[in-house]
Amino acid sequence: MLWRRPGRRLLNNLSGRVSAVYILVLVIVALVGPLVISKDPSQISRSVLKPPSPSAWFGTDQLGRDQLARLVDGARVSLLVGVVAAGMAVIVGVLVGAFAGFFGGWLDIALMRVSEFFQVMPTLIVAVAIVALIGPGLFNIILVIAMLSWPQTARVTRGEVLRVKQLEYIDVARCQGRPEWRILLREVIPNAIPAVMPLIALCVAEAILQEASISFLGLGSPDTISWGLLLHDGQQNLLRAWWMSVIPGVATFITVLAFNLLGDSVSAALNPRLRLIGRVRRRVKI
Amino acid sequence: MLRYGLRRLGWAVPTVIGIVAVGFVLTHILPGDPVQAMIGEFPAPEGYAEHIREKFGLDRPLPVQFWLFLTSLLRGDLGYSFAHNAPVTDIIFTRAGATLALMIPSLVLASVLGVVFGAIGARRAGSRSDVAVTAFTVSGQSVPVFWLAMMLILVFSVRLGLFPVTGMTSISAPESGFGRFTDFLRHLVLPMVTLTLAYMTVVARVARSAMIESLQEDYILTAEAKGLKNGEILRKHVLRNSLPPIITVIGFNFGYCLTGAVLTETVFGWPGIGSLFIQAVTNRDYPVIEGVFVLSAIAVVLVNLIVDLLYALINPKIRRAHAVA
Asked: ipTM above 0.90?
């Protein structure tokens, strides 16, 4: 019931609808694609650096591997990194922000200082340095991205928790003698979550970009096919094989764009003020 | 104002120490010998490992080691790179010129164009020009900067042959004079356009939102009722009141410029700090990795400090609030 209106608003929004459909299709392709496409993404052949043709729709790479099969396989990894890293960042961010905002005092100061500290870190440089030191690997990359992405969620959650905890039903819960931790988990966090919803999609978009950047720099696992790795290979062959960089780049761009648009649409659906800004014609014509 | 500045500086110092601590921990908690990590995978002179061990007091407790590390840093000593056979500080300063030559014009251009685009969108929220600006900014934020760089190379260097593919100067360029300068400019165009596009979209998006909010305020109606011209309203009332978030995002861009430099310099083969960092990562040149990491994080903290001081300078409310507190 609580979600019916924002859900309808989201579906009424064209960019929200299109991006949601795209993401859904991408998830299906990532799950089913490798089963449908008969070609092995790691199979080396003699057809080296062949441009797109009916036999290889997206061409082949420097080792004669089918680019379409690699792109579909890479979609799995890029989506997995995006969703898992964003999921971890959101869970940590919500918990940190909720504890800081709800209990306040020294805990709030300490947690927010830690969050500020992580926010001033130059993300890519830190991520690259850590991955270089601890070694490549999907799990390491996910961990590093999540570790550097939670502060924004924490700050938004804290702000919302500060608002929610002032509401009357929290006082009612206290009067009923419920313990504080229960009020936090049952009343405060569920009511603060809607403010965090738009961040989830934005976090996924950011994580996909981060993973692509790390793999592009050659720090991803060479055995794990991701769009960043395809772009890394694409750059090595930029002057000889345009398709190797154009196609995975377009896929990354459209996917990140879809998550960003979805995040904006969720934000607009939940925030009446933002919706109005989109529609209002300024009363003063400048 | 002075008290506010000192208070902000008071916050910046522990943050910098924290960043140095992270850099320190990264090279010390990892499995293996930290001396080997400092030396990297390059042949060091005999006895150097012992010298390093003694210099950094690696046989002493960790807090003492951290103190020695911090004091070395204060003296500007970031260690020695065997990959380059030179002190890390010297290597970074040699490369800093190229990075600054690329970043400063890109960031200035991005800031100016971002505000102009934001104003174009905000003038009539919901109009076609606004939709175009919004589409441009969302797309700009979604495009991987390294891919944008690659596409610019494909179109303008490979297809049209207008600009060189990589590097900062041509081998055939004159040693000095105007010819050298124009050669440098030809190399600069594509990396600069890449970074300008990447950074201006963020500025434009924030500027648009801030200006739309300002335009809804009653003082705009009052300004118009007073008979002020549109340009004057935009300059004196809208822009001035939208400045805090715009300054924040411009400061953010300046603070994080090394992150953009890493990817752009890698694609364009630009010999700056960004490409130095990636070379260091590839070569496992730990002192350089640590040096660039610490310096880039300190740059972010310093820029944040400057932004906060600018905030207080342009907004008397902040100064007074802190003076009262």
From this structure: no
